[in-house]
């Protein structure tokens, strides 16, 4: 397990803030034990509950326990990667978007949002400057250790909120592997459905009909979140056309994205507008807010997970009792 990278410098980005372990009693330091909120030292003065920031790195150590309690044990990891987004959007587009959506949703239905997390699957962009592409084992180990550290700090429900399409299969696999060994927390993958009304409104505003990466919609989202980082004068510097260099219907291979969109631009962003961006963001925020609320109230997942681990353990020990 690659433990030395857990609190690595990659979690730091200008404006993203610094996070560290909350203060714990000396006898708990380095013990690896879960820190329960009631066991934490309490500050003499704490901010009013309504003023608690959802951003992990903005909380004080003394207020952290209150945040865990108010969040109902729910923590969100907004995820993305560092990759090219044509010539007009920043490398961190996916994480900027994911974190903005997560923080906005958590302000309405309180949860704690983990800092800027960009260790994701992006091997297909290794030929482009600025890409940060870690090894497969490190990607898995870092996310696994991060979840364990989040749980050690008192959270029992972790939501993976993804802003990068290339992470989807990896994150579904990661969730499935949570059944490989017993744990005292559950991991959920936020998987929003298409909002037909929002899709209809966006379609009516769009100037283009194709897209998928740094396109009209994604550029519109960044025009809302970080307009200072959008360079509309550079939209035409790359082609976002599908080059269709590998027509193999019915077969999947890892080089498929490079075969179609080697410029890391899919679509046409010229028609981007804040209006489109707000529609897209509002839809995702509303769905994530509802999911946070559902997961807060959920007791079945942990019960079923614990039941499963007990049952799996009985098979390992030679028993074959049916689950009641």
What does this structure look like?
The chain is mainly alpha-helical. It has two domains: 50-194 and 283-316, Rossmann fold (3-Layer(aba) Sandwich); 196-280, no CATH class. Helices cover 36% and strands 6% of the residues. It contains nine helices and four strands. It has helices at 61-70, 93-108, 136-152, 168-176, 196-205, 216-225, 256-260, 274-297, 300-316; strands spanning 74-79, 112-113, 157-162, 186-189. A four-stranded parallel β-sheet has the order 2-1-3-4, sandwiched between helices. Helix 2 crosses helix 8, helix 5 (196-205) packs antiparallel against helix 8 and helix 6 crosses helix 8 (274-297). The longest helix is centred in the C-terminal third of the chain and has 24 residues, at 274-297. It is globular, with a radius of gyration of 21 Å. The chain starts with 60 loop residues before the first helix and ends in an 8-residue tail after the last helix. The model is unreliable at 1-32 (pLDDT under 50).
């Amino acid at each position: 397990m690659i433990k030395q990278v857990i609190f690595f410098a990659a979690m730091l980005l200008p404006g993203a803030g610094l996070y560290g372990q909350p203060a714990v009693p000396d006898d708990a330091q380095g013990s690896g034990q879960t820190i329960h909120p009631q066991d934490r030292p309490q500050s003499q003065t704490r901010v009013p509950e309504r003023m608690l920031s959802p951003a992990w790195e903005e909380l004080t150590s003394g207020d952290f326990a209150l945040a865990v309690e108010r969040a109902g044990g729910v923590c969100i990891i907004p995820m993305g990667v560092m990759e090219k987004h044509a010539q007009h959007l920043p490398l961190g587009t996916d994480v900027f978007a994911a974190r903005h959506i997560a923080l906005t949703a958590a302000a309405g239905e309180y949860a704690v949002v983990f800092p800027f997390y960009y260790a994701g699957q992006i091997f297909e962009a290794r030929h482009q400057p600025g890409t940060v592409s870690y090894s497969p084992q490190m990607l898995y180990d870092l996310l696994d250790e991060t979840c364990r550290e989040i749980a050690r700090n008192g959270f029992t429900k972790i939501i993976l909120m993804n802003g990068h399409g290339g992470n989807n299969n990896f994150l579904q696999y990661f969730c499935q592997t949570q059944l490989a060994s017993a744990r005292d927390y559950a991991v959920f993958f936020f998987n929003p459905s298409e909002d037909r009304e929002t899709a209809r409104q966006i379609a009516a505003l769009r100037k283009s009909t194709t897209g998928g990466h740094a396109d009209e919609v994604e550029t519109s989202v960044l025009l809302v979140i970080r307009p200072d980082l959008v360079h509309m004068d550079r939209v035409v510097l790359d082609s976002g056309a599908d080059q269709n260099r590998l027509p193999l219907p019915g077969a999947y291979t890892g080089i498929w994205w490079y075969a179609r969109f080697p410029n890391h631009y899919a679509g046409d962003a010229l028609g981007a507008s804040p209006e489109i961006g707000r529609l897209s963001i509002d839809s995702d925020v509303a769905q994530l807010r509802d999911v946070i609320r559902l997961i807060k109230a959920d007791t079945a997942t942990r019960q079923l997970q614990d039941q499963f681990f007990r049952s799996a353990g009985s098979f390992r020990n030679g028993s074959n009792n049916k689950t009641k």
